[in-house]
Amino acid sequence: MGKFQYRHFHAVQLSIALAVIYGMRVNFHVGIVRMVNHTAIGIAEYDQSEDGPFIWSKRIQGLLLSSYFWGYILTMLPGAIIAERYSAKWVFFGAVFLNILGSLLTPLASKIHYGAMLILRLLQGLSAGASYPSTHVMLAAWSPVDERSFMTSVAFSGTSMGAVVYTLAAGYIAAGLGWEYIYYIEGGVSALWLIVWGVFVGDSPSTHWFISHEESQHIINSISQGKLPTKKPKVPWGKVFRSMEFWSILVAQTCCNWAWYTLLIELPLFMKDVLNLKISENALYTAVPFLSVFFFMIILGKIMDILRAKKVFTTTEARKVATGIQCIGPLFCFIGVCYIENVTAILILITLAVMLMGGMFSGYLANHIDIAPNFAGTLMGITNTAGTLSGIGVPLFVNEVTRKDNSIKSWRIIFWTSNLMLIIEFLFYTIFGSGEEQEWNKGVRGND
């Protein structure tokens, strides 16, 4: 079909929404490098010209970086349930609006006290918790079965593009205008998206006011074979938690997130501590890997859908191959980073590691919709809650390991820990993962 397709428009809007959410998360990770007075807290090797006004110890920095996830982890499951029962569109709108507001208030909160900044980051995390589950609710409603890998990859590509654009912009804004303007400019520009989302996005094809009847029926027939449920079935909680297919996704997401957050959150610190890059170089080299994953994940998602359509792979095989790429590729890259001394080679390996992590988006992250489209948001709420424990743990772990020694010796411990997580993920998902719809997707029948 050559004409405009609203399902693809929705995938792009989901991508932008996740880019904003991720941008509001990671801009602080770049900004804090310029906000802290590193000389005052006893880190002599930092360039004094890049010192900021705040005397925040390593421990305080770790708390500030992880506090976002304390809030984030609390609202994912409630947010998923609300999005499934009422409106994923407006739940997502609220999440983005409150994160933008938090960004605009960051300079003020920082100057009041680090405790105020801690509360603000916590509130940003609370509001953002529903974003991933809402994405899955909308993808379950808008994605034809034969386009799931591609549309999931397009939607979640916003996470990497958000990391690229906001990280890169934050570095140059901080260097040129000052750290406060990171939050004013990025927050202000992001607010424009709220208008587009509010006017043109709908919860489902059957309720959307612009979509053609032809496209609406194509999506509905693909998802339900023309048989839509008269009402939303109740979640069969017991069967969900007894399902190894579900547990394979949960373990994969928890383990993968440890390695992913090590890169997403701690890459600027690694480049500063070990590679001795200045903030503008740091931002550039941190952004480039996430630009590579943006293209890789979309291309891999399309390839997986083509191979499924041609019966080269079953859905189960496609999910396991994509997840395997996400595990094995970065594992070898991390080993190289630990023992190679050439800076250029290290940057290439980091870029490859981040790029290959993109396999998760057409792997286990698309799997919730395969096994239970009726409860995709709820399942994502549960697995992402578990996965976010990594988001809380990684900053605290890294700061503890590097507190007395931030050399490559300490970073080897960090990267080998990520490798252990990737090995567990690969083995568990390969053994227990499935791409087949589960019988319990139909909901509760009698006693669960």
From TrEMBL:
The chain crosses the membrane at residues 12-32, 63-83, 90-110, 154-175, 181-201, 246-263, 283-300, 321-340, 346-366, 378-398, 413-432. Keywords: Membrane, Symport, Transmembrane, Transmembrane helix, Transport. PANTHER family: MAJOR FACILITATOR SUPERFAMILY TRANSPORTER 3 (PTHR11662:SF457), SOLUTE CARRIER FAMILY 17 (PTHR11662). Pfam families: MFS_1. This is Major facilitator superfamily (MFS) profile domain-containing protein. One of its GO terms (cellular component) is membrane. It comes from the Eukaryota. GO terms for molecular function: symporter activity. Gene3D superfamilies: MFS general substrate transporter like domains. The lineage of its organism: Eukaryota, Metazoa, Ecdysozoa, Arthropoda, Hexapoda. CDD domains: MFS_SLC17 (cd17318). InterPro entries: MFS (IPR011701), MFS_dom (IPR020846), MFS_Na/Anion_cotransporter (IPR050382), MFS_trans_sf (IPR036259). Residues 15-437 form the Major facilitator superfamily (MFS) profile domain. It is found in: Membrane. Its main location: membrane. It comes from Rhynchophorus ferrugineus (Red palm weevil). It is a multi-pass membrane protein. GO terms for biological process: monoatomic anion transport.
